[in-house]
Amino acid sequence: MYSTSRQRRLTAVALTALAVAVSATACSSGSGSSAAEDSDGGTYTIWDPYPQFAKGSAWVKLLDDCGTEAGVKIKRTGFDTSDLANKTLLAAQQDNSPDVLIVDNPVVSTLADAGVLTTTDDNKLDTSKVDPNLLAAGQSGGKTYGTPIGANTLALYYNKDVLKEAGVDIASVKDWKSLTAALAKVKKAGKKGITFSAIGTEEGSFQFLPWFWGSGAQLTQLDSAQGVSALSLWKGWLDKGYAPNSVINNTQTTSWQEFASGDYAFAENGTWQLANAEKAGFDYGVLPIPGASGGNAAAPTGGEFVTLPVQGDTGRYATSQKLATCLTSTQNLYDTDTTLSYVAPTSEVQDKQVAANAALKPWVDAVKAAKGRTSDDLGTKYPKISEQMWKAVQSALSGSASPKDALAKAQSAAK
Amino acid sequence: MNDTKQSSDRRSAHGRSGAATAVPPPAPMRERRRPTSQQWAAWAFLAPVTLYLVLFYAYPLYRNLDLSLRNYTVRSFVQGDAPFTGLQNYLTVFKDPTFAPALLHTVVFTAVCLVFQYIIGLALAVFFNQHFRLSATLRALFLVPWLLPLIVSASTWSWMLNSDSGIVNAALHAVGIGPVNWLTSPSWSLTSVIIANIWIGVPFNLVVLYSGLQSIPANLYEAAALDGANAWQRFRRITFPLLRPVSAITLLLGLVYTLKVFDIIWIMTKGGPADSSTTFATWSYQLGFGNLLPAFGPGAAVGNLLVVAALVFGLVYLRVQRKQALS
User: Fold this and answer.
1) Which range is the signal sequence, renumbered to this chain (chain A) (predicted)?
2) Is A173 among the domain residues?
3) Angstrom distance (rounded) from CA A34 to CA B306
4) CATH code for the domain of A119
5) Which of A293, B89, B111, B145 is deepest in the core (most CB within 10 A)?
6) Are A268 and A255 in contact (CB under 8 A)?
7) How far, in Å, CA of A61 to CA of A152, rounded?
8) Contacts of B15 in chain A (CB under 8 A)
9) HSE-CB for A376 with a 13 A CA cutoff
């Protein structure tokens, strides 16, 4: 009896240990939900990162219409954007990829590297009308892996009331020096300066990039003098109280909430907040992010790509190509990008958007000046660099290392 | 305690009847002979639970081990032809500059949480054992942290501890203390997640220890009171020793729960800033899923280290138990 109870206890301990293992690391063997399994071939699957659009929304209706046009039925699934890359990898592992995949642009080169996506040479997607700076995010090793459905980028929103109270003329903000001077005035007037997101995820890198690139630094050399100057600019704002300490943990959404409280003069945020800006209840303006010594800094492009994953049955590509072409046709791009509050990827549609809504003008300009994160043929090197970059930003802002040391460490780790 | 006793009795009854009918698995001698119909029935009864264990415990663990021993890139993950690299992933993990801090944080986080959860839980259990008016209601209220979904409690904590607009800093300001960067300073972030986790873990300790207290016979206290023992002596000489078995299992379960805590830390600090609140659990996730380019191998390796840690403590528990049983 004694030994059996001991055995039982041993089993219990082993099982609890297993439970830790399973809950801490399980996921690897999750099934990638059924996709292109239908034997009739008349059903095509589409995955997108827009779970906010339910059945009956304009987006889902557009998908169905494109399906009808191509003579097939559409099975659509919306995923959380952070989840989509892993889900796609798992599905590809089980030869179960969707026919059409709409995915965040920095992920495209990773999926292409995994051999999950077809090139435009194979699938005959027409990308000739797309702005080259936007298309670059979907290019890797000289090949193109999809076409953008819409783009967004970052700029500075400003609160006109706060600036007026502080006596700041927005026209005077032209470079980093004048921006910092404006922040000082705002602080003196008892208001808060600027809010952004420096969280320890891809979002943090996304927000830091306009300043990094605006200093003239390159992603291949994180610890250049220019890179250090960009991080020192942020660090200086925190030290002097121009930016709140909470930026270290802010997502872009929480940062926007701070700005929407009406106390902040500036906020770095994206195209997608335009609709919320209208609702904020104060007069706002939009300013491209200035470069270190004037001019506009290149901001990173956000937004999704329409891609066609590799299929076992190559006969499906023709129909998939029709679906993708339908989704990115001029009229449909206009409708989709209006719903998403995005800037269109072709100048034809951009002109149409500006004609309909003049407030989009600064955003269209910003998108034209924007740069893909995986551009410059960084491809799958970008994720590693980005991780080290957001870590360096966090180290410097939280005071655990100087900007110079933090970036030097990041550079040696990213190599 | 009655409850636990009963259920353990029931379990051992199961074990006995199982042992009586089922053939013990390692019996190759007997397997050679033709199994009788009774044996077939026994195997049939054993099959569902075996299948369940293999499918939901053994296979994921095997996959995790396999992941940690191969060099997975996104490409080889999809193609399924990742080369076997032995312990390379473990070496990568050991050499990583994050390893030492993550180990330290995991140990500190687990130890501090366990100690405080246990002490506070025990104090509350003794307190509520006095059966005053409203004690049942108050005890129920203490369960709230346990009932709330973790995402709710962790988000609430991170709002309360916000440097600029959090209620904690507002309260500190009211009593004349300057703001503390709870979640955004490397010297405070670990403390903040520990505080939140203690708050979440106290109810579990309270419930288990309280039920343990119920099983201590009241006449022992009466006798002690007659002998002139004061409250502290009664606690020291009766309550604490008699509670020892319950305490041991509470601490072991608490240890396992605390080692793998992930959600609270991830929601509150993402392991940052600058890895200052990274534990093995968050590091494992960060490696496997927190980046655009997942590193499955090292992520799985860190996860396996956690399993080994839990196993080691389980064995320590067994040893202690055996010593107690022998003495």
Assistant:
1) 1-26
2) yes
3) 33
4) 3.40.190.10
5) B89
6) yes
7) 23
8) 4, 8
9) 11
Indicate whether A35 belongs to any domain.
no
B109-146: pLDDT as tens digits: 999 999 999 999 999 998 888 878 888 888 888 888 88
Q: Give the pair of three-digit tokens for residue A275.
A: 């609709």
C-alpha of A16 from chain center: 39
Q: How far apart are CA B203 and CA A92, in angstroms?
A: 44
| Sign of the torsion angle spanned by Cα atoms B98, B104, B107, B110 | negative
Could you tell me the two tokens for A189?
A: 């007037």
What residues make up the domain containing B273? 99-326
Tokens of A71: 């003579």
Q: Which two tokens stand for residue B300?
A: 């799985």
Q: Element (H or E) spanning B281, and its range?
A: helix B280-289
The burial of B13, by beta-carbon neighbours within 10 Å (0-12 exposed, 13-18 middle, 19 or more buried), is given as exposed
- Chain A residues touching residue B97 (CB < 8 angstroms): 413
Of B152, B161, B148, nearest to B193 (Cα)? Answer: B161
Q: Is the pLDDT of residue B21 over 60?
A: no
Contact with chain A for residue B263, Cβ under 8 A:
no
- Closest by CA to A410, choosing from A140, A195, A230, is A230
Would you say B144 and B162 are in contact if contact means Cβ atoms under 8 Å apart? no
pTM given for the model: 0.80
Say whether both A212 and A225 belong to one domain. yes
CB A200 within 8 A of CB A386: no
Cβ–Cβ below 8 Å for A24 and B284: yes
User: In this predicted model, what pLDDT tens digit does every residue of B61-92 receive, in sequence order?
Assistant: 898 888 888 888 888 888 877 888 888 889 88
Order of all β-strands in the sheet with A154-159: A192-195, A264-270, A154-159, A284-287
End-to-end CA distance of chain B: 22
Please tell me whether the peptide bond between B28 and the residue prior to it is cis, using omega within 30 degrees of 0.
no
Q: Per the structure, how many domains does chain A have?
A: 2
Residue at B290 is within a domain: yes
Domain that holds residue A257: 154-300+376-414
Any A CB within 8 A of B226 CB: no
Contact B275/A at CB under 8 A: yes
The answer to whether residues A52 and A273 touch, using CB atoms and an 8 Å cutoff, is no
Q: Is there a contact between B242 and B216 (Cβ–Cβ < 8 Å)?
A: yes
The CATH number linked to B202 is 1.10.3720.10
Domain match, A246 and A387 both: yes
Instruction: Give A290's strand partners.
Output: A296
- Closest Cα in chain B to A30: B60
Calpha distance A361→B154 (Å, rounded) = 40
Asked if A18 and B307 touch (Cβ cutoff 8 Å), the reply is: yes
Among B184, B275, B307, select the one facing A248 at the smallest CB separation. B184
- Can you give the C-alpha Rg of chain A in angstroms? 24
Cα gap A76→A184, rounded to integer Å:
50
